[in-house]
Amino acid sequence: MRHIFTLLFALWLIPATAVGADKEAVTYQKKDSVTVCRLLAASRQLPRGTNLQLFFARKFLGLPYVAHTLEINDDERLVVNTRQLDCTTLVENVTALTLCAQRGQYTWRDYLRTLTAMRYRNGKITDYTSRIHYFTEWITANTKEGIVTEIQSPNPPFSAVQQVSVSFMSNHPKSYKALRNHPEYVADIKKMEQQVSGQRFRYIPKTAVRNHAQLRKAVKDGDIIAITCRKKGLDIAHLGFAVWKEGKLHLLNASQLRGQVVEEPKILYEYLQEHPTHTGIRIIRINK
From CA 2, how far away is CA 155, in angstroms rounded? Predict the structure, then answer.
């Protein structure tokens, strides 16, 4: 019996490949599907008006920060990992769960379909280049699909303008496993970067991220916060969710520095001042 239990436990931990949304291959572990279905089932019992983004995001508190969790297959597949998160996968998992709960969709297949539509250009998986890599494109693509809305007014506090110029991936292909293995992808990545570059978006400069009435009106609990930066070739440095505590704005994020998903104890204003390359925040709201 002990040997049977050991075998079953081992099988539980082995990544699975299954048929998911639109018959695309999906890589995940059994505990990922259990987590998703458990959280969606729990959301059905929540009181009306519950902030779903923060409800789901807080379920991931304490989980380890792990980068590159989507880069485990040579052929592009939808990867679901609810056990290890970086800032982007935290935002995507929480957004997909929120959308499913809002729509009354509570199955694993519903979740896979929602995540695919959000993560891939036009919801179609072909190869590595079909995945949305820069968060500016993520915002514009998911705005087009009616999933999110970027808030850019009033002014103030949205008093600054970011003109996007992205080139980091094509200029540093050796930093990406897929581009090292498939140098033929670089041309398509560069073409995508050119399409993303040149767009202009209003944002809140970090000097204005203070706890005043204008900020409280502009930023709501559970909004996605995209931190803008001046690092060459990048548009967004980090992501998280807005959390208001006692009238002060904080960031719930998968923190590389802290090694886990946390609600930052310091206010967002102080957090931003500690990072010289951070310039401010863009605000993205999940549509209801």
Answer: 65
* Burial of residue 58 (number of CB atoms within 10 Å: 0-12, 13-18, 19+): middle
Distance CA 288, CA 285 (A): 9
Give 122-148 pLDDT, tens digit per residue: 999 999 999 999 999 999 999 999 999
What residues are paired with 253 via a beta bridge? 262
What's the CA gap between 130 and 189, in Å, rounded? 9
Q: What is the pLDDT of residue 24?
A: 54
Other CB atoms within a 10 A radius of the CB of residue 223 amount to: 22
120: which DSSP letter?
Answer: B
Residues near 191 by Cβ (< 8 Å), separated by ≥ 6? none
> CB within 8 A of 262, min separation 6: which ones?
61, 62, 252, 253, 255
Phi then psi for 39, rounded to 5 degrees?
A: -65, -40
